[in-house]
């Protein structure tokens, strides 16, 4: 029995560190954009979502699964609060909360709802990362000076909570996402796709701030695939289904004008519409291989893309659950680079199914020109029937254009693994 004035250690531990290495998003349409069913048979984690960016940039120190996306478009803080029980039942280690964009609620109503959400998540042992209301300019629910003032007051209240609450952090993107010269609380140029919802570049700015907080909580990232001995077998059903996922030796294939050196069992495909695509296989200081892809010149295409493709060595059976993981880096000063994604597609019973991480959701806006990197980790696919065809695709997309545009990008892929998780 605990001494008077104390609580049992097991009880205290709930408030010290996250119980699980998972991260959830809770809010409205801005949160909903973290993942999507792109088509009926495709599950994708998107770079329009700042929660997914946080998982990527921290090298998967925390895992974001689409089942942990609790974003519903158009909801007010009152409606979001009403769904809180489902978030607590999912028991994520961290919950990113962004609410208050919709509905014209009063200041008192919004802070009461947000305070209740923060309190209940804390009591459930879930760390809160609050994102203040993102700038959206003089449109929609922020059309009047009164509405903008109310949102700014809520943001000030959110910032003060970090001084009053335990296990509570604020990822304040007001400066990085907002225009400091705007008198209408507008976002910076080219960070949204409609004046409200972040595009990939905008979500990246918010995701970096969340990633910094996650990095301060956890020290150890996900260890990428690091040994060619980790092949799938009867003794190791969780081994890699890909040959040469470490890019240790060359001899791969080049398609449609791609040039250079590509790792064996991989195919580099150039469908940019005119840009030069060259592969280089590097050896890292830790001994792993690395597949570098350089895109230069000009291009003209409505769907400009580069693909690095490989096929699994063995087949899956019905009931298997699989995921794809890949480490990558993008060099600074890229031009018109929209998307770096990792996907696995399998034809099952005559129907193609796919899982993707890094899908941009909107190819009309480029990624930030700054260098970045991390680990992509797809949602899990449950195999329904033995696939008749299957492929891993590491995809690079450029901005669509009807006239010549310059292309400049250097992307490096490492440690690709396709594995069972059950």
How many angstroms does the end-to-end distance come to? 40 Å
Rg over C-alpha atoms, rounded to the nearest angstrom: 22 Å
* Largest pleated sheet: 8 strands, mixed
* Model regions low in confidence, pLDDT < 50 over at least 5 residues: 1-7
- Average predicted confidence as pLDDT: 91
In order across it, which strands form the biggest sheet? 2-3-17-16-20-14-10-8
Q: Helix segment count?
A: 9
Helix content: 10-25%
Structure classification: alpha/beta
Tell me the total number of β-strands.
Answer: 22
Write the layout of secondary structure elements.
Blueprint: H1 9-13, E1 23-27, H2 29-32, E2 35-39, E3 42-46, H3 50-57, E4 69-71, H4 77-81, H5 84-90, E5 94-98, H6 107-123, E6 127-130, H7 145-161, E7 168-170, H8 174-177, H9 200-217, E8 253-255, E9 259-260, E10 267-271, E11 276-283, E12 289-296, E13 298-299, E14 305-310, E15 321-330, E16 337-348, E17 351-359, E18 372-377, E19 381-382, E20 389-398, E21 405-406, E22 409-420
Parallel strand pairs: 1-4, 1-5, 3-17, 5-6, 6-7, 8-10, 9-11
Antiparallel strand pairs: 2-3, 10-14, 11-12, 12-22, 13-21, 14-20, 15-18, 15-19, 15-22, 16-17, 16-20
Give an account of the 3D structure:
- By secondary structure, the chain is α/β, with parallel strands linked by helices.
- It has nine helices and 22 strands.
- The protein has helices spanning 9-13, 29-32, 50-57, 77-81, 84-90, 107-123, 145-161, 174-177, 200-217, and strands spanning 23-27, 35-39, 42-46, 69-71, 94-98, 127-130, 168-170, 253-255, 259-260, 267-271, 276-283, 289-296, 298-299, 305-310, 321-330, 337-348, 351-359, 372-377, 381-382, 389-398, 405-406, 409-420.
- An eight-stranded mixed sheet has the order 2-3-17-16-20-14-10-8, with no helix packed on it. Strands 9, 11, 12, 15, 18, 19 and 22 form a seven-stranded mixed sheet that branches. A five-stranded parallel sheet has the order 4-1-5-6-7.
- β5 (94-98), α6 (107-123) and β6 form a beta-alpha-beta unit.
- α3 crosses α9 (200-217).
- The radius of gyration is 22 Å and the shape is globular.
């Amino acid at each position: 029995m605990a001494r008077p004035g104390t609580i049992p250690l097991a009880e205290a531990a709930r408030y010290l560190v996250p119980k699980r290495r998972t991260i959830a998003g809770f809010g409205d349409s801005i949160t909903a954009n973290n993942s999507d069913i792109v088509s009926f048979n495709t599950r994708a984690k998107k770079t329009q979502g700042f929660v997914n960016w946080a998982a990527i940039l921290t090298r998967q120190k925390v895992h974001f699964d689409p089942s942990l996306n609790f974003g519903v478009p158009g909801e007010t803080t009152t409606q979001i609060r009403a769904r809180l029980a489902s978030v607590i039942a999912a028991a994520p280690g961290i919950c990113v909360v962004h609410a208050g964009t919709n509905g014209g609620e009063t200041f008192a109503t919004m802070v009461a709802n947000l305070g209740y959400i923060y309190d209940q998540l804390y009591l459930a042992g879930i760390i809160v990362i609050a994102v203040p209301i993102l700038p959206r300019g003089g449109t929609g629910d922020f059309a009047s000076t009164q509405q903008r003032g109310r949102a700014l007051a809520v943001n000030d209240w959110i910032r003060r909570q970090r001084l009053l609450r335990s296990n509570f952090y604020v990822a304040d993107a007001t400066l990085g996402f907002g225009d400091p010269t705007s008198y209408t609380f507008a976002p910076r140029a080219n960070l949204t796709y409609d004046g409200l919802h972040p595009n990939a570049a905008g979500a990246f700015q918010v995701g970096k701030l969340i990633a910094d907080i996650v990095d301060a909580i956890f020290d150890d990232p996900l260890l990428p695939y690091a040994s060619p001995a980790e092949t799938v077998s009867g003794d190791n059903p969780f081994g890699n289904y890909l040959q040469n996922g470490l890019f240790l030796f060359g001899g791969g294939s080049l398609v449609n004008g791609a040039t250079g050196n590509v790792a064996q069992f991989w195919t580099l495909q150039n469908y940019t519409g005119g840009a030069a695509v060259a592969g280089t296989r590097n050896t890292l200081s830790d001994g792993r291989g690395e597949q570098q892809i350089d895109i230069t010149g000009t291009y003209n295409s409505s769907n400009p893309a580069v693909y690095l493709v490989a096929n699994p060595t063995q087949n899956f059976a019905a009931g298997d659950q699989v995921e794809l993981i890949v480490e990558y880096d993008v060099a600074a000063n890229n031009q018109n680079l929209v998307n770096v994604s990792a996907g696995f597609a399998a034809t099952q019973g005559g129907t193609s199914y796919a899982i993707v991480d890094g899908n941009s959701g909107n190819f009309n806006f480029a990624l930030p020109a700054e260098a970045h990197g991390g680990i992509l980790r797809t949602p899990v696919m449950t195999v329904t029937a033995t696939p008749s065809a299957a492929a891993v695709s590491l995809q690079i997309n450029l901005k669509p254009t009807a006239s010549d545009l310059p292309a400049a990008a250097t992307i490096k892929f490492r440690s690709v693994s396709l594995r069972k998780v059950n």
